[in-house]
Amino acid sequence: MSWTDPASIGYPTLFLGVLIGSIVPIVPTGAVVGAAAAVAMTTPHLNLPLVLLLATLGAASGDLITFAIARLGGDAAVRWLGRGQRPDRLAGARDRFKRQGWQLIVVGRLIPAGRIPVLLAAGAVSYPWRRLVPATLAACVLWAVAYALLGVVSGGIFDSPLIATLLAAVLVLVVTGVVNLVAKRRREKAKGRQGETKVGS
Questions:
Q1: Cβ contact 31:169 at 8 Å
Q2: Confidence of residue 57 (pLDDT cuts 50, 70, 90)
Q3: 53: confidence class by pLDDT, cuts 50, 70, 90
Q4: Which pLDDT belongs to residue 193?
Q5: pTM across the whole model
Q6: Most distant pair of Cα atoms in the chain: their distance
Q7: pLDDT of residue 1
Q8: CA distance 181 to 201
């Protein structure tokens, strides 16, 4: 494999994009995975199982690094990771983590904007590595499969790698938006029920 081979560029780009985006959420990691899966479906340049493996490893590595920063990096590191996160969301994640740590790690990875609060909460309660690592790997496998499926769907519809990649990115953005909207509605309903309970009491 030479440096001019598309695979020699595509695989490192996939892994590094997911890894960096899992630590510093400026890269749309789901779109990266969906686009790579679409390319794998429409060209011989990428292999779908290898795309899934690299996406899982990149996501898991990023999550474990984020957890290590949250647990070992001190207050300044935690504030840096938690920038842009609502305080009530962080506090809620911390309280729930004590009861449902494993489940929260999986759900937090699958729900947009849920990963950072969960990992910060894990660091705050000193969640043990022996539990975190298998939960993170399981969550990242599910995450990689979910977003790769969007790329597989787009690649199955169009033979053109460019169109399939663009469609995969659009599908990822649409799914992310819908999940965010549903999560927001659920939080609003939960707050409404809490307000009613306080008034009733």
A1: yes
A2: very high
A3: very high
A4: 57
A5: 0.73
A6: 71
A7: 45
A8: 30
Tell me the pLDDT tens digit for each residue of 82-126.
665 566 666 666 667 667 778 888 888 887 777 887 888 788 777
pLDDT at 60: 96
Residue type for 193, please?
A: R
Q: Which residues contact 122 (CB under 8 A, 6 or more apart)?
A: 67, 70, 71, 97, 101, 105, 132
Cα 79 to its chain centre, rounded Å, is: 20
Tokens of 173: 């953005």
Q: Show the tokens assigned to 88.
A: 């009530």
Q: Is 175 exposed, middle or buried (0-12, 13-18, 19+ CB in 10 A)?
A: middle
Q: Tokens 């795309």 appear where?
A: 51
Q: Looking up tokens 């990691």, which residue turns up?
A: 29
